Amino acid sequence: MNKNDLNGMTLRNSLWDIVAACTLLTRLPLPQAPDEAFERQAENAWAFPIVGLVVGMATCIVGAIGFWLGMNAAIIAGFMLATSMIMTGGMHEDGLADCADGFWGGFDPARRLEIMKDSQIGTYGVLAIVIVTGLRWMALSATISLGFAGVIAAAVLSRSVLPAIMAMVAHARDTGLSHRVGRPTQQTAAISCGAAGLLALILIGFSAIGAALITVFLAFGLTKLAKTKIGGQTGDVLGATQVLCETAILVFLVA
Question: Is 148 helix (H, G, I), strand (E, B) or coil?
């Protein structure tokens, strides 16, 4: 096999990695990736920021249409938020609600994990969704008044830390989405963070440094909380981390 064949294979694998990552984190109608792509799903995590780029750009297209139609910024932000939730199937918000219910609704790790697995939502979950979505909506409304670059950067950065959490923190249970995907290597996590940092720097300039630091500190704090409450990470923890980091970045960019 010559060098051109190797380069072609690497490019094809990378493209299928992106498709597999999008299949995992969104509900977009996509081509069926080959079985090999899903067999190495943990290593596909390097493409999580690319998923954020896709989701962020789609929401911004909706926002641009809203501005073209002369809509109010708050209304446009609502449509953009709805677009993002529809594209991802609300999986990150679901993780936030489950974590809020489980972390503060149980008195020991086993009971907390049991609550998080329950499909019903409790008071803590409802409050978390309402408060975080409200903050996200207001921050998004203010951010798009300054341009769409910050929205895309927030979507990219907030997903970039997930592979690092997956790589460095043990699973809290032997079942579930996070366990099924597996644990990526630290190299994969580094590629994800590096790619996201570069994209954010291009999009929002040196504000990306502050946004990245906020993302890292918040992800670290949430990880410590998860280890204390349930002994590790789950898909719900990853989803909650994403939506909280995205909200924090938007608030930072407005401030």
Answer: coil
Residues 6 or more apart in contact with residue 4 via CB below 8 angstroms: none
Alpha-carbon span 233 to 225, nearest angstrom: 10
Tell me the pLDDT tens digit for each residue of 37-65: 667 777 888 999 999 999 999 999 999 99
Taking CB atoms within 8 Å and a gap of at least 24, the contacts of 84-92 are 84/55, 84/58, 84/59, 84/155, 86/27, 87/26, 87/27, 87/28, 87/55, 87/58, 87/59, 88/25, 88/26, 88/27, 88/55, 89/26, 89/27, 91/25, 91/235, 91/239, 92/239, 92/240, 92/242, 92/243
- Partner residues linked to 171 by β-bridges: 233
State how far the Cα of 99 lies from the Cα of 121, in Å rounded to an integer.
Answer: 10
- In terms of Cα–Cα distance, which of 254, 148, 161 is closest to 215? 161
Alpha carbon distance 21, 40 (integer Å)? 11
CA–CA distance from 59 to each of 136, 175, 183, 219, 231 (Å)? 14, 32, 30, 24, 35
**Cα–Cα distance between 63 and 38 in angstroms, integer?**
33
Tokens 């300054």, residue located: 146
Contact 156, 51 (CB under 8 A): no
Rg (CA), the chain: 18
3-42: pLDDT as tens digits: 443 334 355 667 888 888 888 899 988 888 777 766 777 7
Q: Find residue 233's DSSP bridge partners.
A: 171
